[in-house]
Design a protein that fits this description.
Layout: E1 4-5, E2 12-13, E3 16-19, H1 37-49, E4 54-56, H2 65-77, E5 83-88, E6 90-91, E7 100-103, H3 105-119, E8 124-129, E9 139-141, H4 143-156, E10 159-165, H5 169-176, E11 183-185, H6 199-206, E12 209-212, H7 227-231, H8 249-265, H9 271-280, E13 287-291, H10 295-301, H11 311-319
Parallel strand pairs: 3-4, 3-13, 4-5, 5-8, 7-9, 8-10, 10-11, 11-12, 12-13
Antiparallel strand pairs: 1-2, 6-7
Helix pairs in contact: 1-2, 1-10, 3-4, 8-9
Length: 325
Amino acid sequence: MKRRPFGKTGLEISPIGLGSWAIGGGDYAFGWGAQDDAESIAAIERAVDLGINWVDTAPVYGLGRSEEVVGRALRHLGSRRPLVFTKCSLVWPEGKRDIHHNLEAASIRREVEDSLRRLGVETIDLMQVHWPRFFDAPTAGSIEEGWTELAALKKEGKVRHIGVSNFKVEDMERASAIAPVETLQPPYSLLRRGIEAETLPYCLSHQTGVIVYSPMQAGLLSGKMTAARIAAFPDDDWRRRTPEFLEPRLSKNMALVEGLRQAGARHGKSPGEVAVAWVLRNPAVTAAIVGFRRPQQVDEMVGAADLQLTDADVHEIEAAVPKPQ
């Protein structure tokens, strides 16, 4: 699999990275239901076999579980291990499952140490601030305090590179006044295009590496979703409460999937591969995070990395996107 320069980091990464949110399991506010750790590890190993050279995770995914599973996979892979990108700023009290937002220096340092332990590595390849603020929840600390501490941790060698997630341009400007923002991880899909107007042009002009998350809108555009499957989601799958998975939007989104299916048929690709290839067309986007929970899912999606959509494909696909309500 060909690799792309990741902004100014000096790293070269595959166009698809393995997202490990779902492998954190369920039983917390942002869970995906029960997961099989052995299958998750096998999926990571299969991804590496097929040329994917980075994994994106976070402490909050499963409240530590995702990082622990990724750490077990790294031990299995040995010298073949992929780059590991993780995050900080979302924390939970010991023995509890309620999530808080914290950018205080002491909290950031504690998170980095905990991630190093769970992952079983000496240095984290990329540490990202997960959120500049967490919806309407109170925030301890500030962007400036948290970013200053991350810059110090980079100098100490605890992390190789530092980036951000879910930041707007003004947030990146605040951080950049202290130390360069090397990377950004924003949401981006056919159903979520808000970053096209300002954020992506800013990153392109500043050579900020961009890895986008949820290019298939949490699996909705994969081509495998049906109304019956969505209705059968377990109670601890956060998607049950998401408007895109509920009527009246669901039917319109399913119509978009059929448009993706038609475009994909011309290339021998699935709707999900087309959805991922669409985000990879943007010149500001370095790579896309795709969630894999089983080895078979990796085999089904890696074709997106080299799928070249035509202008006619793109026109047809974008014409099928539901209009904002």
